[in-house]
Amino acid sequence: MTEGRERTADTAAIKTYRYLRISMVGAVVLLGVSILIERSNVDCWQTSVSAYYYTPVGAIFVGMLMAIGLCLIVIKGSTGWEDATLNAAGMLAPIVAVVPTTDVGLCWSQSPGRLPVDDDGNLSAWVTANVDNNITALLIAGIAGLLVAALIASIVTNNVKAVAEVGDRATRLGLLAAMVFLLSGAVLFVVWDDFNTRAHGIAAVLMFLFLALAVGSNAWDRRSEPAPRTYFWSYASIAGAMVVAPAVMYPLGSSWRHMVLVLEATEISLFAIFWLVQTREHWGETV
How far apart are CA 11 and CA 13, in angstroms? Predict the structure, then answer.
């Protein structure tokens, strides 16, 4: 009876792991379809994926990033370093979602009823109010989540030092980094005057950087595996492309109006490809 329950639990865990991974790709597809629907109603593209926040795509854009962020935090990486980088990217995704870009663009099927940017180039009061509400909620929920996790770990292990002793070095550093990130974010939110106008871009760049590091960590872990080395070369190529793409495209920014749009789409597509390949690698197992 016990063995049967264990097999059932293992099967449920594997299926849950698969569904979670596949749902992340589904969220990216959802955003892509929403953007294409918006594009079918106009004869132009917005200057970036982020600028679609101000179009009818807005709700899907925010929802997708919130869902992806949650999944990146919840899912366990195959190594401690991958888990830490995925957690970091997952914590940054909601900031990208709720602190909008100041590059509003001009390509809308329906113009925003209230312009999100004032004549002086600053975000309008209603956008700032949204940011203040959402970031405050994220910080409070994040800090509360870490405290609850620490409490549960201490109760389950009957060890008040469980958080400091759990897992390997990378896991402990990841937890410490999460705490530092939340506390630093709270301080910056309060004292940094340009938070509302600069946080989106900085969070987006760092999010893609951590995603590239997650891919690279997988290549590094498989560098000495015996043949076939399919996964090593796949992960190394994708990580390299994620680093090379901005290095090639960024210098074209001033002369190519849609550089950011193409770069964001490229980075998202490359990580989605990695995620599919890794899902195939771990299809019959959980982490």
Answer: 5
Per the CB < 8 A criterion, the answer to whether 226 and 104 are in contact is no
pTM: 0.84
How is residue 135 written in tokens? 């970031």
Query: pLDDT (tens digit, 9 = 90+) per residue, 248-263?
Result: 998 877 678 889 999 9
18 within 8 A of 10, measured Cβ to Cβ: no
* Residue closest to 221 by CA, chosen among 87, 84, 78: 78
Burial class (CB in 10 A: 0-12, 13-18, 19+), 282: middle
